[in-house]
Amino acid sequence: MTDLDDTAPARAIPRAPAEGLDARLVVDRGGFRLDVELTAAPGEVVALLGPNGAGKTTALRALAGLVPLTDGRLLLDGVSLDRTPPESRPVGVVFQDYLLFPHLTALDNVAFGPRCRGATKAEARAQAAEWLDRMGLAEHAGAKPRNLSGGQAQRVALARALATRPRLLLLDEPMAALDARTRLEVRAGLRRHLAGFEAVAVLVTHDPLDAMVLADRLVVVEHGRVVQEGTPADIARRPRTDYIAQLVGLNLYRGRADGHTVRLDAGPAITTSEELSGPAFVAFPPSAVALFRDRPTGAGARNLWRCEVAGLETYGDRVRAGLTGELPLAADLTTVAAAELGLHPGAPVWAMVKATQTHAYPA
């Protein structure tokens, strides 16, 4: 979690109507239909987040011109790109597997873009050397991709994309090929580079930490549609689908609120600290759930449910218990507490959550 404390330069986001990205991406592919509105101002980093098959990669390929639009619009800085071929668009792409040319050095890989845009060989190499230096890779300019680490290859691919000075930068799962330790370092570096990028950046990822750390705004896509968008803090605080709740590690329920009580659509009522009326969500973290083998004495009936352990997963010194019963939920506890409770699949337990540890908000 080190990256969350990384102090990137503050990013000023101008909002001019004719600048930035203004798109409605409609793509029909067999039985799947993508229909996503996507806008971003210059200097803004937007993350497209969603489960496999949601349509986020299709959206990215449509932005790049690799997939034709069935309908909609694609405006960049006020100019329509609908009929512009991919090679003529002011778009830079960092692919998931980087796609570096194996026979070229790092320097010539980065110089490839400027050369394609009309720069002389000397000019392109000079620009490439400058970008490699910015990425901290000046000493690796003569290295072939096979001699680069995963993090170094990722930075070369980013430099290659930025060397053409794109007005739209697309990043397709840029951390997917890296091991966990390398991701920490590369994510922090990428955050710094994106903070200084003056055009629009769109990041496609399924990793919530990448999205939370790198993006100014999240757009969550499920089944080809936008289901929620907002700042990382807003999304984490108020998830609106089960997929999002699982991403940010919350138990999420939907029901109807009447004062401090939310009667769930499928299940019991939950007492909350907030007072609401009408359709509402209730969320709380697994760490807020207390488990007991016997019904707690002196505890009221509010937010106390009889459950059964469906499964157990270990995360370091913590155990996450998946529970079924009156209220399906996830609970986190220490390995010591799990042992003392004698938890195992099928074990009956009582689950309790304090009203002050729940968060209710309008649906």
TrEMBL record:
<feature type="domain" description="ABC transporter">
    <location>
        <begin position="18"/>
        <end position="248"/>
    </location>
</feature>
<keyword id="KW-0067">ATP-binding</keyword>
<keyword id="KW-1003">Cell membrane</keyword>
<dbReference type="GO" id="GO:0015689">
    <property type="term" value="P:molybdate ion transport"/>
</dbReference>
<dbReference type="GO" id="GO:0016020">
    <property type="term" value="C:membrane"/>
</dbReference>
<dbReference type="InterPro" id="IPR050093">
    <property type="entry name" value="ABC_SmlMolc_Importer"/>
</dbReference>
<dbReference type="InterPro" id="IPR017871">
    <property type="entry name" value="ABC_transporter-like_CS"/>
</dbReference>
<dbReference type="InterPro" id="IPR004606">
    <property type="entry name" value="Mop_domain"/>
</dbReference>
<dbReference type="InterPro" id="IPR005116">
    <property type="entry name" value="Transp-assoc_OB_typ1"/>
</dbReference>
<dbReference type="InterPro" id="IPR008995">
    <property type="entry name" value="Mo/tungstate-bd_C_term_dom"/>
</dbReference>
<keyword id="KW-0813">Transport</keyword>
<dbReference type="InterPro" id="IPR003593">
    <property type="entry name" value="AAA+_ATPase"/>
</dbReference>
<protein>
    <submittedName>
        <fullName>ABC transporter ATP-binding protein</fullName>
    </submittedName>
</protein>
<keyword id="KW-0406">Ion transport</keyword>
<dbReference type="GO" id="GO:0015408">
    <property type="term" value="F:ABC-type ferric iron transporter activity"/>
</dbReference>
<dbReference type="Pfam" id="PF03459">
    <property type="entry name" value="TOBE"/>
</dbReference>
<dbReference type="InterPro" id="IPR015853">
    <property type="entry name" value="ABC_transpr_FbpC"/>
</dbReference>
<dbReference type="GO" id="GO:0005524">
    <property type="term" value="F:ATP binding"/>
</dbReference>
<dbReference type="InterPro" id="IPR003439">
    <property type="entry name" value="ABC_transporter-like_ATP-bd"/>
</dbReference>
<keyword id="KW-0472">Membrane</keyword>
<keyword id="KW-0547">Nucleotide-binding</keyword>
<keyword id="KW-0410">Iron transport</keyword>
<dbReference type="Pfam" id="PF00005">
    <property type="entry name" value="ABC_tran"/>
</dbReference>
<keyword id="KW-0500">Molybdenum</keyword>
<feature type="domain" description="Mop">
    <location>
        <begin position="298"/>
        <end position="362"/>
    </location>
</feature>
<dbReference type="InterPro" id="IPR027417">
    <property type="entry name" value="P-loop_NTPase"/>
</dbReference>
<dbReference type="GO" id="GO:0016887">
    <property type="term" value="F:ATP hydrolysis activity"/>
</dbReference>
<keyword id="KW-0408">Iron</keyword>
